[in-house]
Design brief:
The chain is mainly alpha-helical and about 80 residues long. It contains 2 helices and no strands.
Amino acid sequence: MDARSPKRRKKAANLSIDAELLREAKILGIGLSSFMEQKLAQEVKRRRLQTWRRDAREAMRAYNDFVEKHGIFGEEFRSF
């Protein structure tokens, strides 16, 4: 589900941010809540993928070893 979906409930959170950086963001019209939500969603997605790759690495290695040893199912019927 998209983290920016309007059906998701919002929850207030406290952040400590450099005052000058916050002032500049405000001047530039950067909405802190939407910006942080977007960046946090990107980081969550990146870390989930990283975790999945780490967890799936051994299974992929075992599958590749199996294919190397036994070939691909139905390989004898391939015409390419």
